[in-house]
Specification:
Layout: E1 2-7, E2 23-27, E3 40-45, E4 56-63, E5 68-69, E6 75-86, H1 88-92, E7 104-105, H2 106-110, H3 119-122, E8 128-131, H4 133-147, H5 153-161, E9 174-177
Parallel strand pairs: 1-3, 6-9
Antiparallel strand pairs: 1-8, 2-6, 3-4, 4-6, 4-7, 5-6
């Protein structure tokens, strides 16, 4: 089982924040029983009031611990970013991180058969979501592998589907450009 963390660009825009290897703390509100170390995590930007092109996946990471309250009592989970995906058009035009469009647009993902009933398709409100092993594998094989042939996400997806805990050090940290 994997997690998907969603950022609303009107409140916090993740596009300028994903730096592979960086350790961060994500605000979480639900599915706390899945919040533990070594969980595969997708990084999703909601549309907010921005252009539709920002909605989608920007990369992935691995949780480093369990959800704990911060000073204000809000639950946060430690996470380390592993890969950042960049759309080829943004890379070719040397677009700044904060102006990137989704390297894996929402409409591409939500057309996958296993994703059509996902909460992101039916009720995309919230900070975090559950992603099943079949959804992770379909995303990996249908979209990520063809677009990012050097990505380590397919290996992480396979490990996740086999119930193998993920360790960040087992993956090289890199920026990826769509090819």
């Amino acid at each position: 089982m994997a997690l998907l963390f969603q950022s609303n660009p009107d409140q916090w825009d993740l596009r300028g924040s994903i730096e592979p290897g960086e350790k961060v703390s994500w605000f979480v509100t639900r599915y706390l029983n899945f919040m533990r170390p070594s969980v595969l995590t997708l990084l999703w930007e909601a549309q907010g009031s921005k252009a539709p092109g920002v909605r989608g996946l920007y990369g992935w990471g691995v949780t480093l611990g369990e959800a704990m309250p911060d000073r204000q009592g809000r639950l946060r989970i430690p996470l380390q970013y592993v890969e950042r995906w960049i759309a080829k058009s943004d890379a070719d035009e040397n677009v700044s991180d904060i102006e990137h469009i989704a390297a894996v647009p929402a409409q591409d993902i939500l057309l996958l058969s296993s994703w059509q009933d996902h909460l992101l398709a039916t009720m995309p409100i919230g900070t975090n979501f559950i992603v099943t092993p079949s959804q992770i594998l379909e995303l990996s094989e249908s979209i990520v592998r063809p677009r990012f042939p050097d990505s380590e996400f397919p290996r992480a997806a396979r490990m996740d589907s086999e119930g193998v805990p993920l360790v960040v050090e087992n993956f090289s940290k890199q920026r990826l450009v769509e090819v």
